[in-house]
Amino acid sequence: MRPDAAPETPPETLFLATIPGATPSTWVQRFTSRERTVQLVNHDESAQALHLRHDAAGAPLHPLPQLGYLRWLREGAGAVPGDEVGVGAGGEAGAGVRAVGAALRGFEATLRAAGVDPRFVHAVTVYTELPVVCVGRDHLLAAWDAEADGPVPLSELDPDEELDPARFAPAPSAPVDETGGVPGTFVDETGDAPGAPVDETGGSVTTPVRETGGTGPHTEAAAPNPMDTPEVPGAGERMALEIAATGVGHVVLPMSVARMFGRKDVVVLPLACELDETVGMSRADREAAATRAEIEAGRAAEPGADVVGQGAAHDDGARHPGWDVALAWLKEADSPLVQAFVGVARGRRGGSSR
């Protein structure tokens, strides 16, 4: 290099938070160039929203990672991959948020449970995931013939035998402040559900406060650093599968997670899912199916509908909802670098403009 030559500008780095099952290698390859690169930050699913933690004004508590994966149990007809996910009118969670077992369903419910106000978040769904059930080779379900009998119905699973990976996952580390409390979480001072956004008039504005009794916003030092990663990502899933391998209980996982942590002594079977009819459909067909599902749900809610009969039919054919997966980032952390990567994930070429 000549003495008078200008030094080369280092590439701009996007830090991307991942979760078990995520495989962003194709997007990273298309996105990477001489001007930009990607650094993966591998998280457990329990910490998937750490990069979205914010102060009262919606500013990120930590600048990195700028972008990350977010997975949630679908609600209703779910989101079509490529759609932007947002909050409902008035910032309130939709009426379709409900529970499957002890798990929350829906984009907003997942964020609120993590202490994040959905109004401050951008999210774009990138794909949906099918569920599988994992059992040991000595388990009764191991003899199930998926080719002959189809996916395993939910009615075949004993809820008391379910091994939830969240039970075995280490809790995200939270720093303790000088007063002995654990700061960095939202607290509802009105007595409503923890993490629910409220304002003085009973509206839906989230006010972050300190669990130690203070009323000020979170500070960067008070929140777990999303750049701190576990030594072994997916510890909860690995432990649940290890227990299932002994023939005790079953584990329900997204197919991508079961594939990532697969074991020779564990049998993986497809689980009956609400997504089964839409697998392989084009985007237009999925949108049409989602519209039909919304219309049918509206008819079922009309006065005079045969609720008893519909409930019985639903119980007989109950299916797992599946998962939606999105790339999520704080609106205050938006940048051309983030938009470029999201564009690649949505199918645009790496060098194209939005």
List the helices and strands and how they pair.
Elements: E1 12-18, H1 25-31, E2 36-42, E3 67-73, E4 84-85, E5 99-100, E6 103-104, H2 107-113, E7 121-129, E8 131-136, H3 146-149, H4 165-168, H5 235-244, E9 251-254, H6 255-260, E10 266-270, H7 283-300, H8 307-316, E11 323-330, H9 336-345
Helix pairs in contact: 1-9
Verbal overview:
The chain is α+β, with helices and mostly antiparallel strands and 354 residues long. It folds into two domains: 12-173 and 224-345, no CATH class; 176-218, no CATH class. It is 21% helix and 17% strand. It is built from nine helices and eleven strands. It has helices spanning 25-31, 107-113, 146-149, 165-168, 235-244, 255-260, 283-300, 307-316, 336-345, and strands at 12-18, 36-42, 67-73, 84-85, 99-100, 103-104, 121-129, 131-136, 251-254, 266-270, 323-330. It has a six-stranded mixed sheet, covered by helices on one side. It has a three-stranded antiparallel sheet with strand order 9-8-10. Helix 1 links the parallel strand 1 and strand 2. The longest helix has 18 residues, at 283-300. It starts with 11 loop residues before the first strand and ends in a 9-residue tail after the last helix. The model is unreliable at 88-103, 175-218 and 307-316 (pLDDT under 50).
Descriptive labels:
single chain, 354 residues, alpha+beta, 2 domains, six-stranded mixed β-sheet, three-stranded antiparallel β-sheet, 9 helices, 21% helix
